[in-house]
Amino acid sequence: MFLALEVDGAGAHPAAWRFSGKPPAVVLNPAHLRDVVRAAEAGGFTFVTFADSPLPPSAGNDIAGRLEAGGRAAYVSTLTEQIGLAPTIHTTTTEPFHVAAQLASLDHASHGRAAWLVGAERGAALATVGATTAPDGEAAEVVELVRQLWDSWEDDAVIKDVTTGRYLDPDKVHHVDFQGGTFSVKGPLITPRPPQGQPVVLAPDTLDVGADVVLVEGETPADITKRALAARKTGEPLVFAELDVVLDAAESATERLARLDQAAPWPVNRLRHTGSAHELAQLLNRLGEVVDGVRLHPAALSVDLPLLNDWVLPAIPITAPRETLRETLGFPRPANRFATTRRGVHARAV
Questions:
Q1: Cα gap 209→203, rounded to integer Å
Q2: Which stretches of 191-306 are assigned E, i.e. beta strand?
Q3: 20 to 30 A from 170, CA-CA: which of 7, 110, 214, 255?
Q4: Which SS3 state, helix, strand or coil, does residue 108 take?
């Protein structure tokens, strides 16, 4: 089984910062991020995700800022060794070329641990780029283009031939000539092919983008099961469930959640566990019968993450990390589409 962890801010609960025992601005401190991700790595999580949005993560008295997700992932890439890093990047507010370059760079910096949590922010967030609507199907086009851009350099394009002074073989760097419904890109990417060939792509099951890992939500285990089975019928490679977590600590989980909710309500949008670490481990093992992994959203990282590491993860059969995130998740390294095409043309010419 695989376990992922969302590490945005002080926790998933909008009032988590109020009860973290630290100054509110600490969530913008790189040391906080470093400590959280290192703790997740030590605990055995497969990968961490970094939430992001063009708009602030909350409103009213709890309005807060956040550092950009790609920057956060890049910062911890050289401070960790095994854990996967998956920033959220929105297709509706970020140029596809920059998405591809940023994630390829992250994969190089982390030596093959990069992933992309695909977002497709709509509504008021689109005003940040001067838009009012996002065309249907645009997210799928962006993901396909990004995959092509990752392939635009063949694996052996960089030759570094000192004798001839040639750094790369131009015949192994390709234009993609992509024409989408609302954009076009020539390519090639400015970054050599990522170590994984293509970083892992994650997306909600509500986005039909051809992801490697789909995330399914539901307020009950039965809801999760239904959506997981539907995802498998469409051929999704891996399915992860989304789960909020509030664990018993110095006070009961129920009392702690009530105190947090009194400060700022936390709407129930997905399955939520409120109770003991032992009961959570049992729930995860049951979910493991219908999904390949679970992404946890702890109410307050300062309280819930240590409990997860000490009592929950040791009770779960988590897949051990391998050299790259793709390998850990059981995916083969994808062949380069342009290299395959070029070899085919050469073979026909011979």
A1: 7
A2: 200-204, 213-216, 238-247, 272-275, 293-298
A3: 110
A4: helix
pLDDT at 63: 62
DSSP letters for 19-78: GSSS-GGGGGSHHHHHHHHHHHHHHT-SEEEE---SS-S--GGG------HHHHHHHHHT
Backbone dihedral region for residue 132 (phi beyond 0: left; psi -120 to 50: alpha; all else: beta): alpha
pLDDT in tens, 213-263: 999 999 999 999 999 999 999 999 999 999 999 999 999 999 999 999 999
- Looking up tokens 């390519």, which residue turns up? 187
d(CA 201, CA 86): 9
What is the distance between the alpha carbons of residues 32 and 174, in angstroms, rounded to a whole number? Answer: 41
For residue 310 the two structure tokens come to: 């000490």
Torsion of CA 226, 228, 229, 235, to 10 degrees: 150
The residue type found at 176 is: V
Domains of the chain, CATH where assigned: 2-131+196-349 (3.20.20.30)
Cβ neighbours of residue 153 closer than 8 Å, sequence gap 6 or more: 172, 173, 174, 188, 189, 191, 192, 193
Q: Identify the three-state secondary structure at position 13.
A: coil
Residue 188, preceding bond cis, omega within 30 degrees?
A: yes
What tokens were used for 10?
């002080």
- Taking CA atoms, 10 is separated from 113, 147, 264, 298, 299, in Å, by 24, 33, 14, 9, 8
Note whether 120 and 134 are within 8 A (CB): yes
SS3 state at 92: coil
Which CA distances in Å does 78 have to 9, 74, 82, 109, 172?
A: 20, 8, 11, 7, 29
What's the residue count for the chain?
A: 350
User: What is the reported pLDDT for 348?
Assistant: 38
Give the span between the Cα atoms of 203 and 240, in whole angstroms: 10
Helix (H) or strand (E) holding 231: helix 221-233
CB 250 within 8 A of CB 224: no
Q: From CA 32, how far away is CA 18, in angstroms rounded?
A: 15
User: Do β-strands 2-6 and 47-50 pair in parallel, antiparallel, or remain unpaired?
Assistant: parallel
For residue 279, how many C-alpha atoms fall within 13 Å in the half-sphere facing its CB? 10
